[in-house]
C-alpha cells in the first residue's frame, strides 16, 4: 500500500471527512514520525510496532566492482520492530 492508497481508504471509510483533510492528517502523522526519529526518539504505535534509529559504526568495506578497500563512515539507520498484534496476525494466530 502506498500513501495515496492509504489516504483513499481512510477517505472511503470516513465519508464525513474531506479528502484534503485526510491527506493533511496522514502527512502530519508521517512528518511527526520522521521528526521524532531525526531527533533520535523512538516512536511506538501499540499493536503495530516501534520505529527507532540505530547507529552503525564506521568500518572498512570493499568496492564490489574492484575489490578495493573503502572507508565507510558512521551512519544512523531506521529500524522497525513489529508489535505482538502485527506479528500474530502475520502468522495467523489472531
Would you mind describing this structure in some detail?
Strand 3 and strand 4 (69-72) form a beta hairpin. Helix 1 (3-13) crosses helix 2. The chain contains three helices and five strands; from the N terminus they run ααβββββα. The chain has two domains: 1-41; 42-94, HU Protein, Chain A (Irregular). By secondary structure, the chain is an alpha+beta fold. The strands form two sheets. Strands 1-2-5 form a three-stranded antiparallel beta sheet. It has a two-stranded antiparallel ribbon with strand order 3-4. The protein has helices at 3-13, 19-38, 84-90; strands at residues 43-45, 49-56, 59-62, 69-72, 75-82. Pfam families: Bac_DNA_binding. InterPro entries: Hist_DNA-bd (IPR000119), Histone-like_DNA-bd_CS (IPR020816), IHF-like_DNA-bd_dom_sf (IPR010992), IHF_beta (IPR005685). This is Integration host factor subunit beta.
Structure summary:
This protein is of the alpha+beta class.
Amino acid at each position: 500500500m502506498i500513501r495515496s492508497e492509504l489516504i483513499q481508504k481512510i477517505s472511503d471509510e470516513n465519508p464525513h471527512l474531506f479528502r484534503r483533510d485526510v491527506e493533511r492528517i496522514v502527512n502530519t502523522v508521517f512528518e511527526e514520525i520522521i521528526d521524532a526519529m531525526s531527533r533520535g526518539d523512538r516512536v511506538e504505535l501499540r499493536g503495530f510496532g516501534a520505529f527507532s534509529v540505530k547507529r552503525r559504526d564506521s568500518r572498512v568495506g570493499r568496492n564490489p566492482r574492484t575489490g578495493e578497500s573503502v572507508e565507510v563512515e558512521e551512519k544512523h539507520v531506521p529500524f522497525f520492530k513489529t508489535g505482538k498484534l502485527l506479528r500474530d496476525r502475520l502468522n495467523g494466530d489472531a
